[in-house]
Amino acid sequence: MATATEQMIRGGAWLIEHSDPSTVMTPEHLSDEHRLIGQTAAEFIDNEVLPAVERLEQKDWALNRELVAKCGALGLLGTNVPEEYGGVDLDKIATLVVSEQLSRYSSFGATFGAQANLTILPIYMFGTDDQKKRYLPGLVSGQQVGAYCLSESGSGSDSLSAKTKAMRQEDGSFVLSGEKMWITNGGFADIYVVFAKVDGEQFTAFIVERAWPGVSSGKEEHKMGLHGSSTTPVILQDVTVPAANVLGDVGKGHKVAFNVLNFGRFKLGAMCSGGSRAVIGEATKYAATRKQFGVAIATFGAIKHKIGEMTSRQYALESMMYRTAGLIDARVVASGEGHGAQPMLQALEEFAIEASIAKVLGSEVIDYILDENVQIHGGNGYVRDYPAEGHYRDARVNRIFEGTNEINRLLIPGMLMKRALKGELALIPAAMKLQDEIMSPAMSLPEDDGAALAEESRAVSAFKKVVLMLAGTAMQRYGEKLQDEQEVLSYLADILIDTYA
Questions:
Q1: 332 and 343 Cβ atoms separated by less than 8 Å
Q2: Residues 168/198, Cβ–Cβ less than 8 Å
Q3: What does DSSP say about strands 165-168 and 191-198: parallel, antiparallel, or unpaired?
Q4: pLDDT tens by residue, 358-400
Q5: What is the pLDDT of residues 415-469, one digit of tens each?
Q6: Which of 6, 318, 354, 402 is catalytic?
Q7: Residue 28 designated active-site
Q8: Can you name the residues that pair with 292 across neighbouring β-strands?
């Protein structure tokens, strides 16, 4: 049962409750420990990764493995893993800080994400103690590389329709057969988290070792971007997997997949924020040195406007990311059970709406910033001699993986309304109260008391009322068929995203 404090830390509560600014996490509130781990990540990127970009872009996977190992030795892969399994047992804010820095080279950010988010996390959250002891130390140290095998050629967004089979054997083991697609780290991973259907029906997660007979990876994909990361098919040909390597429960693979996606979406938002900040620096530096008509283009009003808009959007994204990290950590602390796997899992489920918002906003903010960066660079932004072109290509996939932005836009209002109907969020009473206000002679908004950001506070209150009014109207008009009205849900999602950010 949730405690009184937990009841106050609810996903989606920002829509119907006033937020006390003193309770909102911001970068200014980072602890010395957070700053130290952030500095460690920054120095690793500056000293180890960025000087090696040319070799990584040429698909030097041996070097990639070396960098993963160095990353692990610094404690960057195990920020959320207890010391008993080789981690450093920090909070989600520390994870956010690390992700911001490692995103400055997108290809290594993808490699890191597949290791820390998609392999280490599910084993830690859903693995047995034996599985954690067998696999986490090697993965957290970076001595072993992990990959996450969910997608197939016929099941991208519809992951539960996977065709990979797991046939149960008399001795309790399983024989896996199938092919996974678009697997990050697929070409050189040692450990795979693989999803398959037991006896053709029960969607289940397994831990599979590359060394086992029947496991192989296909050719590297010829991608638009992220040339420094490995992306291959992973082929399973009658692979025998012991019962001890079922991850979670048979038939409960969706719980593993969806919760990993929640965390992945949150961290993708963090990576987009960090990458955006770095590119704004590049754009500003270029504008200050590039001269046209005898003066630096940074003096032109149009360029100033671009940099100002880029900065304001990144600031909004960064603020939202730190707020969300603070909420997740507060929920974990409120559980009274420490930073264990179960409190973490519950907190990620609680803030699934916010994670989807982070994914959509982050991927679209960085796309805007990178597009404007190319524009500021002019012709130089279109050639590979400058980094603007590569950044532009690398970022395009952000709107596709961790669930496409279209899918996440459907999830955001869908999850919100589901929580309301289950009584987990007092959305319906708030909408009814708003309806009464609308019918009254004067609809109220917070008064301007002269405080800082008073006008902005009034605007946010108005946004919330608009969301409640439109969501209530949509539910009344469409009822259970609302889930089929994708255009309506997408527009609601956009308003919710803008309001939260």
A1: yes
A2: yes
A3: parallel
A4: 999 999 999 999 999 999 999 999 999 999 999 999 999 999 9
A5: 999 998 888 888 888 878 887 777 776 655 556 666 778 888 888 888 999 999 8
A6: 402
A7: no
A8: 295
